[in-house]
Specification:
By secondary structure, the chain is an alpha/beta fold. The protein has one domain. Helices cover 34% and strands 20% of the residues.
């Protein structure tokens, strides 16, 4: 006769206790709407209907709901990430666990079709704006500039090769602003956040100097600004995306002109007006990077006391948000367009407002996505 395993009943009891505890906790907890640690909205309980049950959507949505609303979700995510780190895993959800506390986002080279379509869009803008000074800045991410922080043999696309190909295929009427070299030569400084995909304000300042050189404008010296610490508890997008929790937070700095400039910021179409480039209420938010202009908006008009009549339109992603404050000394009006949310005609906007300069600013990963 086989001997009975004395541990099986104990394991069975423990499993039943665990399942029972989870059921009780699930029934007692209130569903969360937003996850601060993941910086996203969570799935809510799906409404049952005959159609959704038949086609399987109800089951799929309910699984997502249970996953998002699982009791002690953040705790278990932390346990999972720590366990994987102990076992030597160096990548999670497209984010590499790098050296010196850096989280670095994987880059995938675009297909030939995607590459050609993106460059064609930039060239179409150039053709439609013949009498405008046009500049294009394609910013490398930390994954390229800080390659030495990547885990050994980490598979990754070549951002620099993509940037060089874009540069060589641009319409000759578009001035390409190359910022890779200045970022690369300053890679030992704090120019990229460790837990977020953006550059820091210092990184943005270095790129500002390069743009002013292309525009033949005398830039402000770093001494022109008082550098103030806004927050030293910033956990960014890569922290949220990766699930990695045992990392140190980032510090956000603001470059405030010592000679205060008069600023008016209008969020056109939204009805908001501010007299500062900074949303100081962001200190109490998870995404503290929204301190710069309050985050992303369809169309912003910035008026400054700069002694000039020059106007600038910026077509951008969120990398530009921390970059824009450096430009208010040089342009009387700056229009900021985020094409993810803006669906009006850009050519008409520039003609109607008499805008004579265009800057297209993207980080390379967002540009190709």
């Amino acid at each position: 006769m086989k001997k009975k395993d004395p541990y099986k009943p104990i394991l069975g009891i423990l499993l039943l206790m665990y399942i029972g505890t989870m059921i009780v906790l699930q029934s007692m907890k209130t569903d969360m709407i937003f996850s601060e640690s993941e910086n996203r909205r969570l799935e809510q309980a799906p409404k049952i209907s005959k159609t959704q049950v038949v086609d399987g959507r109800f089951t799929t949505n309910y699984e997502k709901y249970i996953s998002d609303q699982f009791p002690l979700r953040d705790f278990w995510i932390g346990v999972k990430s720590k366990s994987e780190k102990i076992w030597g895993k160096k990548e999670n959800n497209g984010v590499y666990i790098g050296k010196d506390g850096y989280l670095l986002e994987k880059f995938q080279n675009p297909s030939e079709e995607d590459f050609e379509s993106k460059v064609a869009e930039i060239n179409d803008i150039a053709i439609n704006l013949p009498n405008v000074n046009k500049y294009f800045m394609l910013v490398p991410n930390s994954t390229k500039v800080l390659e030495d922080k990547l885990p050994p043999y980490a598979p990754n696309g070549d951002e620099l090769d993509c940037i060089d190909q874009v540069k060589s295929n641009l319409d000759r009427d578009v001035q390409f602003v190359d910022v890779y070299q200045v970022l690369q030569s300053n890679r030992d400084k704090y120019i990229y956040y460790k837990t977020d995909h953006h550059w820091t304000t210092r990184g943005a300042f270095l790129a500002y100097i390069e743009l002013m050189g292309e525009m033949e404008i005398e830039p402000r010296d770093e001494k022109y600004y008082e550098i103030k610490k806004f927050s030293d508890s910033f956990y960014g997008s890569l922290y949220s995306k990766s699930g990695i929790r045992d990392v140190e937070p980032d510090t956000i700095e603001l470059y405030i002109p010592k000679d205060m400039e008069e600023i008016k910021v209008e969020y056109l179409g939204e009805g908001g007006i501010s007299y500062s480039l900074y949303d100081m209420d962001s200190f109490n938010k998870k995404d503290k990077y929204t301190v710069f202009l309050g985050g992303n908006h369809p169309l912003i008009k910035i008026e400054s006391s700069a002694n000039t009549t020059d106007k600038l339109l910026i077509l951008k992603d969120s990398y530009a948000n921390s970059f824009i404050p450096f430009l208010t000394s040089h342009f009387s009006e700056i229009y900021v367009v985020d094409p993810r949310y803006y669906d009006e005609d850009l050519v008409d906007l520039m003609k109607d407002e008499g805008i004579d300069n265009l800057l297209i600013l993207y980080n390379v990963k967002t540009f190709f996505e």
